[in-house]
């Protein structure tokens, strides 16, 4: 990995210090075809925003058979003309643009067999082959288990339902992965479409410890101390200590969620985050402020809860999810819990925890994140199989509406609202998005490829790794040769010279998950116009040295052809050994 002790400027200088080399591969046998010179143009990046929409009627039944004319989309309050549309039903595209999709070939009319006097039928035109079904975007589900908030019994009850569901539904073009959080973010299984394997991994999580019970025990101690307090001030001091500790945990949880979502930003397809917790507090410890008021029969100090309000942090998760195209489905594993006022915790206290304040505090932000990202909150349910089947319906039966985004500059969130023209129909979709520039999309893509394989190589880029050499006592220079066929690079004639430009993006992660900063390199390509006819089977070659530490590394590289904004993503595993290369004896 690029050493964490080096800043991006040092890494960039290492790249800049590398000597670029334009070399031609051996000439192919036979004359190479001369390409026709094209017009000198530069690609204009036009962004089309696509919004996935689930439509239900007044009885919450899914509505099928709608067309583009049934939808209205507003961006920042302005009605947008729709340019793209397709409908998915039962996991396949059934309507595209303005036409229904059929996978059947036309059948020619048969000539009547009982009319021998009829003129011979003219030869039929060759029947067009059957139209292949349009591919449905791949669905990727991240199962995020928040062990920091969960109690073992509640977690395991929900996970058993999820285990059953994934065995039947994670297959074909549906992938799933498992992530756990307990002050440490761990990927238990990367994306796979093997539902049985995901089910087995979830089963293994039932044996792990959780910290939700510890949180309840801490609160029980705080309630006892509040009961022993002689003054309101003393009681509020105890409550603040608990709230500060809880707030610290929530800050780390928010960061873990954002990190997971950000890693998905460059992943293609429909993305779902299935979050399993026992709720996320809007204001950590809010129920304690009311408890103190009831104990001392006063309204003073009630504003203390706003000091710990985390709404802005949860809205940050919403912005990240909508920018990454992730829909959040939030499972509250506490299910149909009893009134906490009659729980064992309250049998030894002077007052009671207000169950309405407690549940509202824990569920309001969960509902907000689900609704704002086009997902659902699964609340007050002991059996979640039904809601999980509803989630499956959301990614197998939906509409996608697209429009050209407003060009107002800046990558800022924009509000989106989808309305139905027919009365009684309700559209559910994400409520904002971020229009991203080409640089942001490439950065997200090359970073995501560190963790999730991305096979997207229209430029046919190849990588060759050379023998690492010591750079200093701790780091090694690793030579990398990058090959791009000249036939894939856009070269624009400018007098006697044809010019192009490619941009390289590098990022590395080591075996411990430590990630380098992103470095890029702009590489001009200049060829004598007279040589264009000899380049069809030759490669543009660029040599660079990357500064890495010993051990296993994963390099993610993006190559962008700047005139057309065509981008390739390539990944390569590299092992930097501290041992000298093996030397073979002569003659062997």
Care to give the gist of this entry?
The protein is α+β, with helices and mostly antiparallel strands.
Which helices and strands appear, and what pairs or packs with what?
Blueprint: H1 8-17, E1 48-56, E2 71-75, E3 78-80, E4 84-89, E5 92-96, E6 99-100, E7 139-146, H2 152-169, E8 174-181, E9 185-192, H3 195-205, H4 212-228, H5 232-263, E10 270-277, H6 286-296, H7 311-324, E11 326-332, H8 355-372, E12 377-378, H9 385-396, E13 398-404, E14 413-420, E15 426-428, E16 432-434, H10 438-448, E17 462-465, E18 469-470, E19 476-485, E20 492-494, E21 497-510, E22 519-528, E23 539-548, E24 551-561, E25 566-576
Parallel strand pairs: 7-8, 7-10, 10-11, 11-12
Antiparallel strand pairs: 1-13, 1-15, 2-3, 2-14, 4-5, 4-13, 5-6, 8-9, 14-16, 17-19, 18-19, 19-23, 20-21, 21-22, 21-24, 24-25
Helix pairs in contact: 2-3, 2-9, 4-5, 5-6, 5-7, 7-8
């Amino acid at each position: 990995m690029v050493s964490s002790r080096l800043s991006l400027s040092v890494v960039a200088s290492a790249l800049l210090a590398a000597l670029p080399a334009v070399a031609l591969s051996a000439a192919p046998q036979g004359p190479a075809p001369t390409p026709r010179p094209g017009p000198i143009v530069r690609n204009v990046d036009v962004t089309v925003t696509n919004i996935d929409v689930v439509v239900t009627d007044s009885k919450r039944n899914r509505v099928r058979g709608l067309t583009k004319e049934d939808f209205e989309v507003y961006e920042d309050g302005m009605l947008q003309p729709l340019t793209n549309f397709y409908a998915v039903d039962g996991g396949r595209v059934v309507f595209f643009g303005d036409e229904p999709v059929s996978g059947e070939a036309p059948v020619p009319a048969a000539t009547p067999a009982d009319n021998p006097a009829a003129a011979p039928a003219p030869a039929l035109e060759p029947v067009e082959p059957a139209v292949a079904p349009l591919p449905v975007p791949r669905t990727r589900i991240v199962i995020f288990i928040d062990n920091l908030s969960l109690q073992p019994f509640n977690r395991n009850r929900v996970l058993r339902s999820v285990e059953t569901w994934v065995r039947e539904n994670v297959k074909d073009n549906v992938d799933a992965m498992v992530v756990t959080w307990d002050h440490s973010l761990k990927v238990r299984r990367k994306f796979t479409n093997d539902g049985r394997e995901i089910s087995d991994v979830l089963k293994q999580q039932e044996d792990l410890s959780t910290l939700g019970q510890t949180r309840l025990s801490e609160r029980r101690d705080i309630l006892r101390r509040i009961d022993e307090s002689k003054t309101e001030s003393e009681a509020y001091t105890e409550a603040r200590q608990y709230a500060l500790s809880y707030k610290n945990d929530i800050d780390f949880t928010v960061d873990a969620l954002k990190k997971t979502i950000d890693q998905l930003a460059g992943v293609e397809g429909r993305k779902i985050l299935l979050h399993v917790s026992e709720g996320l507090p809007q204001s950590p410890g809010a129920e304690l402020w009311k408890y103190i008021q009831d104990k001392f029969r006063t309204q003073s100090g009630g504003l203390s809860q706003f000091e710990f309000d985390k709404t802005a942090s949860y809205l940050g998760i919403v912005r990240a999810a909508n920018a990454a195209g992730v829909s959040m489905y939030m499972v509250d594993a506490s299910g149909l819990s009893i009134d906490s006022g009659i729980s064992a915790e309250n049998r030894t206290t002077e007052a009671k925890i207000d169950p309405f304040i407690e549940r509202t505090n824990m569920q309001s932000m969960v509902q907000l994140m689900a609704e704002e990202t086009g997902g659902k909150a699964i609340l007050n349910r002991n059996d979640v199989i039904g809601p999980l089947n509803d989630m499956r319906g959301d990614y197998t039966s939906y509409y996608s509406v697209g429009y050209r985004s407003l060009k107002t500059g800046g990558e800022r969130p924009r509000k989106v609202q989808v309305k139905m023209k027919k009365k009684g129909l309700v559209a559910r979709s994400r409520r904002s998005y971020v229009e991203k520039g080409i640089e942001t999309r490439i950065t997200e893509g090359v970073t995501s490829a560190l963790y999730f394989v991305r096979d997207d190589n229209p430029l046919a880029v190849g990588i060759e790794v050379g023998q690492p050499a010591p750079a200093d006592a701790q780091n090694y220079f690793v030579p990398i040769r990058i090959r791009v066929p000249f036939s894939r690079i856009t070269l624009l004639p400018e007098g006697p010279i044809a010019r192009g430009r490619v941009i390289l993006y590098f990022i590395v992660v080591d075996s411990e998950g430590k990630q380098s900063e992103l470095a890029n390199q702009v590489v001009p390509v200049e060829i004598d116009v007279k040589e264009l006819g000899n380049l069809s089977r030759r490669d543009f070659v660029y040599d660079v040295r990357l500064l890495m530490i010993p051990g296993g590394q994963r390099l993610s590289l993006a190559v962008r052809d700047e005139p057309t904004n065509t981008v390739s993503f390539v990944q390569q595993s590299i092992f930097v050994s501290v041992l000298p290369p093996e030397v073979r004896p002569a003659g062997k």
